[in-house]
Design goal:
Strands 1, 2, 3, 4, 5, 6, 7, 8 and 9 form a 9-stranded mixed beta sheet that branches. The protein starts with a helix and ends with a strand. The protein is an alpha+beta fold. The protein is globular and about 45 Å long. It has 5 helices and 9 strands, in the order H-E-H-E-E-H-E-E-E-E-H-H-E-E. The longest helix is centred in the first third of the chain and has 17 residues, at 2-18. It has helices at 2-18, 34-45, 74-83, 141-148, 155-158, and strands at residues 20-29, 50-56, 61-66, 87-102, 106-110, 113-117, 123-133, 160-161, 164-170. A hairpin with a 4-residue loop joins strand 2 and strand 3. Helix content is 30%, strand content 40%. The protein has one domain: Alpha-Beta Plaits, CATH 3.30.70.100.
Length: 171
């Protein structure tokens, strides 16, 4: 029995190591001054998976560096920005892939999350690549409508399938 638990733990550790979210570039909408940026920075800093944050006040952009092997939750990022009184205009995450096969309008399990790739060519992702979240809370209404025409799956409208959170992304 101990051997079984040890084997499961080892597989989980290996999977987490392969599914590594490195950093994210977040553009916030509605920031008008340094105090707005500071409020957003302080809110984001409280997330347990954030290692450090760099800011670019001119472009209202935050670069979020994640703690190694941490579980990153994009919804929590969005909630912190909204809690500070603003919204996410764009969220791009740099991910270290290990031979992940993706196809257009298809879902894959990655790092304990389900990613639904939209508007991509069939390919195998290897090494660090940027993926952009295109769910409703991460893009403008116009961009959301554009991407909604590129999928046949209902989960894009709801963000869930069979009660499970689905993150919609593009490369």
């Amino acid at each position: 029995m101990k051997t079984l638990f040890l084997a499961l733990a080892l597989v989980t550790v290996q999977f987490s190591a392969q599914a590594q979210y490195k950093k994210a570039t977040l553009q916030a909408a509605g920031l008008t001054c340094a105090m707005c940026s500071n409020a957003t920075y302080k809110a984001l800093k409280t997330l347990p998976f954030i290692d450090r944050i760099d800011t670019d006040l001119n472009n209202t952009t935050f670069v979020l560096y994640f703690k190694p092997n941490s579980t990153v939750n994009p919804d929590q990022i969005s909630n912190k920005v909204e809690g500070a009184g603003f919204s996410v205009a764009r969220l791009t995450i740099t991910v270290d892939f290990d031979k992940l096969k993706v196809e257009n309008d298809a879902q894959v399990d990655f790092g304990g999350q389900t990613l639904h790739f939209i508007s991509v060519k069939p390919q195998v992702l290897q090494g660090e690549k940027d993926i952009t979240l295109i769910d409703k809370q991460f893009v403008s209404a116009k961009a959301f409508k554009k991407y909604s025409t590129q999928t046949k799956m209902h989960c894009y409208e709801t963000g869930t399938a069979a009660g499970k959170r689905i993150y919609h992304v593009t490369i």
